[in-house]
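Priority: medium. Attachment 1 of 2:
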């Protein structure tokens, strides 16, 4: 079967056609997918409606070991898979909020693999932003200033009692992260596989620069956050049931749009463990 890769935007994202994740990938097919993942950072594999949890995990394991989320409970028989569900009647602001998965861990996620089980008749798209493109847009002076900085990341803001995930995710079992640990990661991250540099801070989990107060950090972090989500660095996934999208958490942000009130959306996510950012 021939595999076609079609870019989704001028910066990142591609659709891959000609794959059947249910039967598993040959080594040649996996190499093609892996290369597209490194080249495009976000890849969409359409038409995987019958994909079962074990097959979803088997595909994810081609990239590494699977993460068990410390604050969100996974599926009963598949703790590595998170059900991300917005029910029809949920009025809370589900989604919304740019982030990089698991940057609050000491060794954050390499990638996430989201399977669309049920999608609303319209809306519910996911946006992605390329953090290497955002880094490339910085002036040489700001690149030099950021080069030696680290930033403090924690789940405390998102997963604490009043955190946005605890409020939003009514249909997900979350536990609180009042005393979540803090980890320092470099503000500029070198991608372990491609060697490209990118910004590695995000609005959900980055609290401040290491050694700086929150107040001192805010103006520069806000500047970076605003730059990082500029339209020219983004792509948009319009979901169909059965789609599987994988994104590289080492160099992208994502944002789930909440624009389908009164409709259900059901996604299932596997998260692949990564390495310590350098
Ligand atoms: C996520 O943030 O992992 C899920 C994104 C989505 O539901 O589109």
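Attachment 2 of 2:
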């Amino acid at each position: 079967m021939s595999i076609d890769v079609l870019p989704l935007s001028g910066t990142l994202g591609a659709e891959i056609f000609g794959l059947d994740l249910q039967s598993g990938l040959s080594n040649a097919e996996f190499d093609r997918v892996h290369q597209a993942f490194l080249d495009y950072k976000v890849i969409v594999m359409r038409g995987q409606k019958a994909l079962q949890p074990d097959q979803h995990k088997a595909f994810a394991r081609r990239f590494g070991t699977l993460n068990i989320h410390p604050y969100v409970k996974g599926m009963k028989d598949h703790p590595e898979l998170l059900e991300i569900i917005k029910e029809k009647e949920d009025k809370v602001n589900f989604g919304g909020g740019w982030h990089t998965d698991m940057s609050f861990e000491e060794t954050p996620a390499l990638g996430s693999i989201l399977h669309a089980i049920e999608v609303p008749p319209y809306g519910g798209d996911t946006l992605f932003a390329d953090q290497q493109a955002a880094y490339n847009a910085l002036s040489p002076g700001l690149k030099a200033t950021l080069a030696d900085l680290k930033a403090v990341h924690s789940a405390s803001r998102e997963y604490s009692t009043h955190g946005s995930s605890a409020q939003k995710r009514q249909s997900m079992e979350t536990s609180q992260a009042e005393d979540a640990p803090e980890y320092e990661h470099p503000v500029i991250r070198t991608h372990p596989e491609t060697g490209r540099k990118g910004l590695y801070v995000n609005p959900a989990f980055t609290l401040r620069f290491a050694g700086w107060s929150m107040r001192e950090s805010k103006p520069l972090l806000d500047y970076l956050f605003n730059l990082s989500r500029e339209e020219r660095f983004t792509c948009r996934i319009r979901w169909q049931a059965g789609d599987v999208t994988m994104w590289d958490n080492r160099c992208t942000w994502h944002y789930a749009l909440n624009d389908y009130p009164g409709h259900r959306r059901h996604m299932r996510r596997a998260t692949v463990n990564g390495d310590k950012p350098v």
